Amino acid sequence: MIRRKSIEKPIVELKDVRKIYIMGKNRPAKRAHKAIRKFSKKVYRLYVKIQKLENSRFDKSKKVKKFKMQLKDCEELLLRAQGLFSEERYLQAFRAIAKKGLRKHKDKGIVVHALNGVNLKIQAGEFVAIVGPSGSGKSTLLNMIGCLDRPSHGSVWIEGLNVTEMPKRNLPKIRLEKVGFIFQSFNLIPTLTALENVIMALRYTGGRDGSKKRKAIAMLKKVGLGSRLNHKPTELSGGQVQRVAIARALVNNPAIVLADEPTGELDSKTSKELVKMMEDLNRKLGQTFIVVTHDEAITKTVDRVIRVKDGKIG
């Protein structure tokens, strides 16, 4: 199979993604944060309106020009407010968006900028590692891409879809069809066999049971577990359990596979085997891998290393 690497539209794109946690009773920060989120939705609606007008079969060039000017002004205002918020100037950020003042209050809380203006593009077929010290925002970034969390500001795009603005009820379908997950602690169901664990990932995809079983068997064979189909996780080695987890992540043919410290609980020999297998799957199938890791063996293998520090990409 040809590798799915592309120089066209990225398979994953993050645009000015910020994730903010406000802990405690910091009223100015909460009010400013809420105002900025509300305004960012207005900007997105304006963007969608322009897209619809541009795709209309009627001549809407005058309206498009007018709305584009509005969009430019709104984007500049939003960036200014976000910048003020990042500098912890919450009263000024609120005033910039809401066009009115806010009474001063004693700050009794903490504002954490887990992600602070992340812009990132990942092409189909890339093997990418995300590295950084503990608390730098690596896992938060992975959660944004995997639709497990929403950004406070900015947008996340997967295969051309803006998943940030999707209703929450639609996100499980996106995760099912477009994202595969490999967890550090494997997260296999201990009472099920390797084959049954992989079939579980196909449970809500539709189709007949026989077809799902054949698909799961084929994927387990690809990761070298054709002779271990009916073994439970307790009857497998650590490396074999992780291979089952990889098969489960790949069986739906997702656009991207996200791995959070996949070698964290494995010995050095098994880790090398696992890295080699992911590399082979990336080269042969064109599967896009995004891996959060501290493992130097992975960083030497990947196409690109993304370094995160203090919520920003370095």
Give a description of the structure:
The longest helix is centred in the first third of the chain and has 28 residues, at 27-54. Helix 1 runs parallel beside helix 3, helix 2 (61-86) packs antiparallel against helix 3 and helix 6 packs parallel to helix 8 (238-250). This protein folds into 2 domains: 27-106; 125-150 and 167-313, 3-Layer(aba) Sandwich (Rossmann fold). It has helices spanning 27-54, 61-86, 90-98, 138-145, 171-178, 194-200, 209-222, 238-250, 268-285, 296-299, and strands at 12-25, 108-122, 127-131, 153-158, 161-162, 179-182, 256-260, 288-292, 304-309, 312-313. By secondary structure, it is α/β, with parallel strands linked by helices. It has 10 helices and 10 strands. It starts with 11 loop residues before the first strand and ends with a strand. Strand 9 and strand 10 form a beta hairpin.
- Say what the CATH topology of the largest domain is: Rossmann fold
Mean pLDDT over all positions: 87
Largest sheet: 6 strands, mixed
- The H-and-E topology, N to C, reads as EHHHEEHEEHEHHHEHEHEE
Order of strands, widest sheet:
6-7-8-3-9-10
**The first-level CATH class name of the largest domain:** Alpha Beta
Low-confidence stretches: 1-7
Helix content: 40-55%
- What fraction strand? 15-25%
